[in-house]
Amino acid sequence: MPSPADQKNARALIDKAIIEDSIPSLFSPGGSFESFPGVVIIAGPGAIVLGNNKDAEPVCQTLRSAPHPDLRQAIRSALHGRAAHINPLLLSHRSGDMDVQRAYDMAVLPWAEGAAALLLGRDVTLERSLRASWIDARRRFEDILSLAGDFAWETDAQGSFTFFSQNRVLGFDSTDLLGQVSDELLCDLESVPVNPFSSRDAISYQSFRCFNHQRQAMTLQISAVPIFETPTRWRGARGLVHTITDA
Known about the structure:
alpha+beta
């Protein structure tokens, strides 16, 4: 009579044969994974690719020709019944004369009671590139703002501050000014022709006296532009400030 170990090995061989026979139909027209919008791979022990869709070719190429410890460890975990997740999974491959790097969000799941591993992923290369570009553009914007003036600001239709480019503004913690009505910052509000922080017309380098955190008067040179939600619907203003008290 076969030992329990022999029975287990025999069962594993039968399961492997069944899986390998059934895999091609999963990726054929009308199969379960035919229209999956991303990477699909079924891998066996040793990270051997048993089946995959077209989107998975770059990942399969890595499994077949290059070591990738994180990916292979995730597959081993799935073969032992534990799901794994890799984000980002960074892969490099040759495309013509260029080295191309792609990024994937990859889930690795047990398949057929641990006889194989199911890899499901999506290509997030473009998202990562756009995020990196956005971060770079924001840093560039912040650098330009710091060179252009002491701080930038924005107000809403009620004339309340909604944004500052710096953490400290006129000695205030900028978070303490957010939501505050801009009128309260101006000295002698009745004598100024317009509140520059809620102007409906563009203002260029005009001087205004404003209070600092100690209620001392400071002279600010302010440039501002109105913000319109529609051509006729004004919703606030934004601008730049230079402190010129000493000058």
